[in-house]
Amino acid sequence: MAVLWQQPSSLLRCQALALLHFICLLFPPSGALSWDNNASPSPLEGFKLVKGNFSRTFLRVGYHKITEIPLGARNVNIHETVKSRNYLALQTQTGVSIVNGNWVIDRPGVFEGVGTQLTYRRPNEIRSRKGESITAPGPLTEDLHVYLIYQQPGPSVYYEYNVPLENTQPTPGPDASSNILGKCTCPHAKHTHTFWCPVSKSSLI
Q1: Which domains does the chain have, with CATH numbers?
Q2: Are residues 150 and 196 in contact, defined by beta-carbon separation less than 8 angstroms?
Q3: Closest listed residue to residue 111, CA positions, set 120, 124, 122, 123
Q4: Which of 201, 205, 173 is nearest to 186 (CA)?
Q5: Which domain of life does this protein belong to (predicted)?
Q6: CA angle, residues 174, 177, 181, in degrees to nearest 5
Q7: pLDDT score for 183
Q8: Quick one: pLDDT at residue 45?
Q9: Using an 8 Å Cβ cutoff, are 61 and 150 in contact?
Q10: Strand pairing of 144-150 and 62-69?
């Protein structure tokens, strides 16, 4: 009779171990879920994690600088913390538009610039509650300028990236005044995505 009970007991132990292994896969020790795309990457040896948040109550409609990400940065992650009708935009240090420049809204996809691939995501505007995001593995071959195209009050954008420890000088944050990307041909030119060029004498690129 004891032999008959040993086999089910061994089977139960195997099932328990398998269940424990499955739980460990779902909930790793770091606390980040395996499917969480917004989870921060593991810290790189010899690198420092830089992060920040851009938030304002009201801004003038147009392009506003969020931050400058320096040359050599890796694991770039920029995303809206609150879904909105605003847009993210990128420009190189030399003034070349990468994403959503020149008053044109690009489709989501993969873009090439500053020596890396930049993945621009804009979730479904109706079904999704997530905002826009831009990620890049790096390393960047030149400084990357990050902008917000302001259309809706209360924007909130989180950004983070890794920089080499020998390059830990503070990077410029958002300017007090608006920095406009692109060109506007008239004082009140309306774009198909319902944002406006507010004034004709803005500092346009």
Answers
A1: 47-164 (2.60.120.830)
A2: no
A3: 120
A4: 201
A5: Eukaryota
A6: 80
A7: 40
A8: 78
A9: yes
A10: antiparallel
Q: What is the mean pLDDT of each run of 10 residues along the chain (205 residues)?
A: 48 56 49 44 78 91 96 97 94 95 93 97 80 96 96 94 78 51 38 38 35
State the residue for tokens 């004082």. Answer: 187
Let me know how long the chain is.
205
Which pLDDT value is given to residue 138?
93
Report how far residue 93's alpha carbon sits from residue 84's, in angstroms, rounded to the nearest whole number.
Answer: 27
Instruction: Supply 196's token pair.
Output: 């406006």
SS3 sequence of the chain? CHHHHHHHHHHHHHHHHHHHHHHHHHCCCCCCCCCCCCCCCCCCCCEEEEEEEEECCCCCCEEEEEEEECCCCEEEEEEECCCCCCEEEEEECCCCEEECCCCCCCCCEEEEECCEEEEEECCCCCCCCCCCEEEECCCCCCCEEEEEEECCCCCEEEEEEEEECCCCCCCCCCCCCCCCCCCCCCCCCECCCCCECCCCCCCCC
Residue 138's alpha-carbon distances to 116, 142, 160, in angstroms, are 5, 10, 12
